[in-house]
Write a structure and sequence with these properties.
single chain, alpha+beta, conserved putative lor/sdh protein from methanococcus maripaludis s2 fold, Elongation Factor Tu (Ef-tu), domain 3, OB fold (Dihydrolipoamide Acetyltransferase, E2P), 7 helices
Length: about 450
């Protein structure tokens, strides 16, 4: 018994000597026994009852030894780029995981500015995403301003082809409505009286002179009604009526009773107001989307709540160097003659979708800083990457993406401003990130 007791005592002394000879190891944290990226500051068990494995200062984490690992984890840095690091896995005050920094310099492989957000915080922020897809180029509404003008195709000038004197005005005021063939004024013209007398003489004699005299009357714009009266009565008239060539209203009336007129001198100017032209001033960058035949809507301050529909008829070939706008002619029906020349209008022209599919995202996905446009790309596992994009046509709640995205990627469509704010803060403070902590040192805050 005494010999056994002596041997046990010697064994204890040897064990104590061996333990004393081993260097003291610093415990960093505990990691999932399968090498998953799950950590704990103290002892912990998996759901099936297995203990987490301790990781010491001189022992790299199991994750860093796994196939395809990026290398040994040096430390963990603040996910917002703040000057705060930790040698062990950690969360910030908002529940966001600290980002591991590897020995090869890779910080979790994320592009610059990437933000990590925990699932709980994503739910709190109300983050919504949508896949980038190919679809027809979105229709959009081009907005412009414009003014009403007469339809130039419905303007008419009333003249006479002979010299004479105005003896009577049937239409004597600007703005009076007129009908086609209506007598506007009666003039005394010696040449017309002589032409009528010549026709009567030729009619009595028959033959070629009759046709020649009739042709002369028509060349002098003597109305057919007057020729019929002349043939029926056989008497000339001192006054010959000047008739309206088309329906419309009088927009100018130089004629006055008693005045002498020369051949070609304007007596009246009329305009048909059944439809009018709306000349829209369209911004240069929007001209490429305008096509003849597109529908347009106009509103006027004189008629609040009422809309006027028209059709794009022509795009003028010149551009104003002062305003950098191009003129677009829109024809608007005006059956009740409510629209008047020089009225100011707000115009919306509806462009059509194109048949060629393009990349589109909801317009709510775009964050426009004024100098650039970015979207937040969902990279999975709570990671969001800010991506600069180049945009094209916009309309119908969607916008075309010309560059910066690929089909199948997912972008954030709501709460993106909040995520972008965190990304910008992180980028702004990136230069102030503290150096890696010394071995065994806890979080450092300068």
């Amino acid at each position: 018994m005494r010999r056994v007791s002596l041997l046990m005592a010697l064994s204890l002394i040897v064990a104590a000597t061996v333990l004393a000879a081993q260097p003291e190891r610093t415990l960093l944290y505990y990691q999932d026994p399968d090498g998953a990226p799950l950590y704990a500051a103290g002892p912990k068990q998996t759901p099936d009852g297995r203990d987490y494995l301790p990781v010491f200062e001189d022992q790299p984490a199991a994750a860093s030894q796994a196939p395809g690992a990026r290398g040994r984890i040096l430390y963990y840095r603040n996910p917002m780029g703040l000057p705060d690091t930790s040698p062990v896995p950690k969360k910030d005050a908002m529940g966001m995981d600290y980002v591991p920094v590897y020995a090869d310099g890779d910080s979790a492989g994320d592009p610059s500015g990437t933000v990590r957000i925990s699932p709980g915080r994503m739910q709190t922020l109300g983050v919504r995403t949508e896949e980038v897809v190919l679809r027809a180029s979105p229709a959009r509404a081009v907005r412009a301003t414009g003014t009403v003008q007469f339809n130039e195709r419905h303007l008419a000038t009333v003249t006479t082809k002979v010299a004479g004197w105005i003896e009577h005005l049937t239409v004597a005021a600007t703005g009076d409505p007129v009908r086609r063939g209506q007598v506007l004024a009666e003039i005394y013209a010696p040449d017309l009286v002589a032409a009528e007398a010549e026709y009567l003489v030729a009619a009595r004699m028959s033959g070629a002179l009759t046709a020649s005299s009739l042709h002369r009357l028509r060349a002098l714009d003597v109305p057919e009604e007057e020729i019929a009266r002349l043939h029926r009565t056989g008497k000339t008239e001192r006054r010959i009526g000047v008739r309206a060539p088309a329906d419309g209203v009088v927009i100018d009336k130089p004629a006055q009773e008693g005045m002498r007129v020369d051949p070609g001198q304007p007596l009246y100017r009329t305009a048909d107001l059944a439809d009018v032209w709306l000349i829209a001033e369209v911004q240069e960058q929007d001209l490429g989307a305008i096509r003849p035949g597109q529908k347009a809507r106009a509103s006027f301050v004189a008629f609040p709540g009422r809309g006027f529909e028209g059709t794009v008829e022509f795009i003028y070939p010149t551009l104003s160097p002062e305003t950098r706008t191009g003129r677009v002619r829109i024809v608007i029906p005006n059956t009740d003659q409510a629209l008047r020349v020089a009225m100011y209008a707000s115009v919306q022209i509806d462009t059509a979708e194109t048949e060629v599919p393009v990349l589109t995202v909801p317009d709510s996905a775009v964050i426009d800083s004024g100098t650039r446009q970015i979207v937040l790309v969902d990279r999975g596992q709570g990671r969001f990457e800010p991506r600069t994009v180049r945009l094209g046509a916009q309309g119908g709640g969607r916008v075309q993406v010309l560059d910066g995205l690929h089909a199948g990627e997912t972008v954030v469509t709501s709460a993106n401003f909040l995520i972008d704010a965190e990304s910008n803060l992180r980028a702004a403070l990136q230069g102030f990130t503290a150096a890696p902590p010394a071995a065994g040192q806890q979080g450092v805050r300068p």
